[in-house]
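seq as requested:
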Amino acid sequence: MGGQFSSPSPQTFGGKVVTVKSKEDWETQLQNSKTSNKLMVIDFSASWCGPSLFMDPVVQDLANEFPDVDFIKIDIDDFKDVADTFEVKAIPTFVLLKKGKERERVVGVKKDELHRVIEKLRS
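struct tokens:
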């Protein structure tokens, strides 16, 4: 019998935030978003940014609350081209995608707004 849920791959989301480690990793995540009905929340941040660090546990809490949403973390210093593609001008910036297309974005330390937008777009 075992557990109720089995995970076929280590990239299963549900309750965790996936940190992009390579360009290929990002391309895979984006492709998965295009072929899925799941909401993807991209957290553009930087390791040196106080507001980004403040939002880290908030994003983890949201990932736990919304296991049906994909949470992706991208460090703008490591992936400047991806940040430029999404026209990220300030951090933290949260871009919400569905079917690979931007549906909404939240800029700054706005945890209540981020929660509201996720709740609205996830179904």
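The chain has four helices and five strands.
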